[in-house]
Amino acid sequence: MTVEQQTVPAQPNSEEPQCALELLVHGVGGATPERMLDAPRTVRVTGDDTAGIHRRRGEEKGERTSTVEEPVAEAYCWSNLTSGNGARALWLVLLPFMVANLAHWARPAAAPAHPGQRAYDVLVRLLALSLTVLLVAAAGEVTMDLIAWQCAGSSHCVQNKSWLAFMTGEGWWARPGSRLLLGAALPALLTGLLWWLSHRTWSAYESAEPPTPQAAGPQSGPQSGPQSAQPSGPRESAEQPMLALPGFWYGRRLVAGLRAAHTAAGLLTVAGVLWAAAAHAHSGGALGALGWALGALHLACWAAVLTELCRRGRSERRPDTAKDTPTVRLLPGAALALLALTALHTAWPRPGWTTRGALPTPHLFGVLAVVQGALIALLALTAWWLQRGAARRSGGGEAPALKGLAGPTVALLACALAGVLSGGLIQRLADWLDRGATPGQGALAGPPVELSWQATMIPLVLLAVLAVAALAALRSRRESRRLQADVLRWYAGEDSANPPRPGDPRARSIAGAVSRARLTDVGPTALGTAALIVLLVGAGAVAGAWMSGEVPGAAAQGMPEPLPTLARLGQALGSWLMGAAFVLLLTLGRRAYKDPAARRSVGILWDVGTFWPRAAHPFAPPCYAERAVPDLTWRISSWIRTHPRGRLVVSGHSQGSVLAAAAVWQLPPAHRRRVALLTYGSPLHRLYGRWFPTYFGTAQLTALREALGGKDAGTWTNLWRRTDPIGGPVLPRPGPDRSGRSPRPPEPPTVDHPPLQDPLAYGRTDRHPLPAPILGHSDYQADPAFREQRRALLQRLAAGPAPHGPAVPAVTKAPAGPPDVGA
């Protein structure tokens, strides 16, 4: 049977009493409307091919027959935002930019007026800018240094390369300046391509404006009246959680400013390489004076870029819809004009200018590595400062991931990914141009010596990562043996043909699933250990390159064996590993471009990494939540307005629970009290609360619970399993303090349901005559508790909002003062 999908007009105002709606939001990896609704044919109620609301065929007006037991079901499908188009698989090359953007949101939850917040944001943006410079410099190293400067100037390299023949001889293209001008075209075009992609993806995915107060509908209770239709001012917004602020999911002007600064930085990097090469030719007279004037203009443009970058800041208090500043409009054009002048200056004939050795851009990659290391160190100090303030505010509650150093760790990971990918491209191309010789040890000078030392350290990093993985596997195996006794206790009362017994393979299987699921909780420690190893090894590579000035194999000559042999082996092996990583990324992108299943796998990475807006790097993949959250908010508000006596439960699985919570936060208080929230397999606390405490910390989630029904029987229920590696409790009980005593919680959590049994039955029972599978993170609807909790939530919802229900409690104030400077 073919699946029918069509768009039907929105429902008019209906007066069915006590109608009920379940709005389903799927998780990572995507899902089809047919699978979510368990129906062969579906109808799109509203939306488009990218993201839309679907219902079962024949239930377009299902409110008339809906009940608390069987609410009409709607499915919001947003998977095409991340994995729908095959071309989006090419976003894999932007992976370091995406990771750097996550570092901005991993900031500790300090006080809103804490001065470290502005410093933290500026440091992350500077680090993100260094990644753009690194990418453009790597492209310039390939085309300008290895191809145009070294290979085209070497008779050994040009042999059997007919595509380089026009750069040899006595023609105009054979001049060093002309060859460099041609080589500069690729990195300049790459910068333009990144600008175009950033601009296009913003228009396609992130330009959905959040609901205005007028569109959200009238407020009820003490907040109703003429003033409720006006935008929230600073005083009103300062009393709301960050995710509840009206401008959180719309920051057009910030992205535009960052895009202008990064585009100008990329063009200035290309111009800087050209200027350095021309300055090395020792031109005198008017040409030399022009070179010094161009150098001064370069410094002025870099100052403008850094000023624009540092003065930018997010403004969540209101949607960032203002016009761009003149600097934003003029900065990329000024950098492009300066690149054109520098290219003309470089291509000017200079008698006696020859190409020898490597391109004269001394220690460019080493300086970038040192700058990134210094920024990460400052970022770590700032994060520690912020975490101290956050600990004082929370009274020493649960610590976030890596004790508040999650942001610097993620930033270091972004730099490592960028270094491996760019270094792998350069190393493999140098090896191919030099006919298989180890880069730096053949006829060509090869890539910068820092990259050769970096390649030598790659095997050490790989061994360290494998050791950490082996320790994690050993820990999981030991815990699996210990958990077998707990499994027998969990199923002790089951009436089955084969009751639980010690040593039973079934018990070992369930215990293994639980222990593997708990590896998620040790992930921060493993990642922090790996980041520390990368930092130490990277510092060693830069120090070795600068102290020796030679590749590791040459620097080890004269040392006792086996050091020279190990150095040559490490350099060759590391070069191959870096190249293999780059080729693997391209292969994965090509496969995902053609294979929808592989595209969904890549989409899972984007589902997690691109949830947050582009606040640090404008060339990161687009944020799908800036489309999905307004979609959900608009749909919930419109349904509540057209069904004044209806009941609505938002049902979110996995990443869908994060989108559901973010959408509920954006609702007006009157509408929020008309909504129930059912989450299952939710990473709200386990991942987002630990890694992004400013936005999903315990205080923020507690505030959302109180906004959804108060401190007693609220309208939020969370289902979870012990075997789920992603989901977990949303508001778990606090653990013991440092003294070992378990603190008394202020109140028992009312959100988290007791852990669901997984599998549903240990052995064969009358209800489960066949062995029940271990579901882990999937198929929560198969558990009878799902329908029971959904029915209970709908029953708790009153027919209409309470006249004086709870408003959003004060939790986190919006940043005031410095974060809005220049925004």
Automatic annotation (TrEMBL):
SUPFAM superfamilies: alpha/beta-Hydrolases. The chain crosses the membrane at residues 122-140, 180-197, 260-278, 290-309, 330-348, 363-385, 405-426, 453-474, 526-549, 569-589. Residues 743-752 have a biased composition (Pro residues). This is Integral membrane protein. The keyword Transmembrane applies. Keywords: Membrane, Transmembrane, Transmembrane helix. Gene3D superfamilies: alpha/beta hydrolase. InterPro entries: AB_hydrolase_fold. Residues 214-234, 792-811 have a biased composition (Low complexity). Residues 207-239, 716-823 are annotated as: Disordered.
